[in-house]
Amino acid sequence: MTSPLTDTLLAYWRMADRHKEALDQYRDLYGEPDDTSRYDDTRTTNAIEASDFLDAAMESIARRNPLPPGCTVTLPGANGATYTVTTGDLNDAARAAFLSGQCHAFARTLCETPGWKMVVLISESCSYDSDLCTPEDDAYDGLCSCRLEHVMALRPDGMLVDARGAHAPARVPGYEGQEYVELDARGWAYLCASPQWRRPAVAVARTFTAPLLAELDATTP
Asked: Which of 53, 98, 125, 155 is the most exposed place for a label (fewest CB within 10 A)?
């Protein structure tokens, strides 16, 4: 039986062999490309596959090797902002990061709790510019993409949870009265690819879920 790390290495080497074989058919005896156009197209295809492989490998490693507490990490936030947080320390800086630009990462990790689901609060109009919201823009669940405003976790009891704690539906501070829709795998893939959303720092967010869940347990009657 092999380890997950060994499986990843073996899979990478198999991919690397395929990539070299695909490129070799366009190289001369000196290793130089003799069909530059097809060689470059093949390199592009190989690079895309390698990038996807790297993303999956890093996520697998992160799951099996959680970040320790006390690490200083800078996260990308909304509108070009950055937030420096200390892993495991759910202080005001961390809450700000996971409320402004990284709410989707935090919700994603909370929903690793059995029975929890991801949802996204929707605004009545485009959050950025009403002119951006056109009838043709129905990126998710028939909604204009810029109406997807704040990602949260839906607890089995119906409460919505973010980095501040648990809130009754339609009573989330700053989003009062707003409805939500469930965010499935297709919706998550959309958010991760959208230029309106930052790279979800899931591995970092994962270090803050236990402190928040402990807070929720302490405040539950």
From this structure: 125
